[in-house]
Amino acid sequence: EKAGFEHFMMKEIHEQPKVVQDTLNSVLKDGRIDLAEVGLAEDEIKDISQIYIVACGSAYHVGMAAQYVIEDMARIPVRVELASEFRYRNPILDPHALAIVISQSGETADSLAALRLCKDHGIRTLAIVNVVGSSIAREADNVFYTLAGPEISVATTKAYSTQMMASYVLAIQFALVREQITEEQYTGYIKELQTLPEKIQRIIDDKERIQWFASKQANAHDTFFVGRGIDYAISMEGSLKMKEVSYIHSEAYAAGELKHGTISLIEDGTLVIGVLTQPDLYEKTVSNMVECKSRGAYLMGMTTFGNYNIEDTADFTVYIPKTDPYFATSLAVIPLQLLGYYVSVAKGLDVDKPRNLAKSVTVE
Ligand code: M6R
């Protein structure tokens, strides 16, 4: 059942090119996005005043990345909230807003409660869900099914990647309908999405390099993932992967926040992972990495092929294929999934069932 892999997590990492492609194909018709099955009509898209994205854990991290893409591309205000906070804080809800609830299982108690809260306020709800017929899928007004297939490993990988794809599709369609992008940009973005599966595959093919690096990190106590903008959202997911399967304390920081407190934690040899996929923010994050280095940090830098001057700063570098900066999350997350996985294996831990965790959190 693990198809020759030692763990489900690795099997699911390898399934990503296919399931990301499947999820994209499910909403493409003659090369264009068709949300008829999801049930979102153009007039409804035009009327959206703002978007609330509500989720937990990795699904929340998808929301964080999606926020940057949707706001920038479609110019719709987006708020991303942890379901467990949102539901208890008596939020002020705009009746013309769209609530997007993201959940692999469709059974997460807090996400379900948040969905019900939105419905009680008469707000249209769209669920991005993997499990067909799950509670969230049944109760939402609209459902965008991710086609990740059953995900067994507690640490999500392929569901996350398909949720990202669903988010891009929504962003692009919203942007077109609301006339924020040209027809040429629209077809260009769809074309770029089509290239992601093959690029993800290329990163997976290079996994031994990450394995080598991971084997050296098994004794690490603290790890910091830093980035700006979309790279910050990617850092959050990388950090969660690290702590959940490898039991190494790790934190994600917006790189610009380091000097507001966190940098005092950097000691000789502390591992700092800089995520640098966004061209506009590249130099800024490099300066933050230099600051960490001068306090003794051991630096891993992840950026796109071509940015070779990262080697002046980082002790270890990982390059990912070029894509549109909007879609970089889908590529940059792969080495970070592999890193968490290989550190866990190097430590001899239970990769697929980390201690204290459940696949689906159905209690509040
Ligand atoms: O089933 P859901 O997507 O609603 O689950 C949300 C989180 O519990 C989940 O993403 C969790 O954070 C994962 N174990 C992360 O790998």
Automatic annotation (TrEMBL):
Question: What catalytic activity is recorded?
Answer: D-fructose 6-phosphate + L-glutamine = D-glucosamine 6-phosphate + L-glutamate
Location of this chain's protein in the cell? Cytoplasm
Does the UniProt entry include the keyword Transmembrane? no
Q: Which residues form the active site?
A: 359
Q: What is its EC number?
A: 2.6.1.16
Alphabetically list the UniProt keywords: Aminotransferase, Cytoplasm, Glutamine amidotransferase, Repeat, Transferase
Q: Please tell me where this protein is predominantly located.
A: cytoplasm
Identify which top EC class this enzyme belongs to.
Answer: transferase
Q: Which residues form the SIS domain?
A: 41-180, 213-354
Which superkingdom?
Answer: Bacteria
The Gene Ontology terms for molecular function here are: glutamine-fructose-6-phosphate transaminase (isomerizing) activity
Biological function? Catalyzes the first step in hexosamine metabolism, converting fructose-6P into glucosamine-6P using glutamine as a nitrogen source.
Subunit and interaction comment: Homodimer.
Its protein name is Glutamine--fructose-6-phosphate aminotransferase [isomerizing]
Its lineage reads:
Bacteria, Bacillati, Bacillota, Clostridia, Lachnospirales
Q: Which residues of the full protein are shown?
A: 249 to 612 of 612
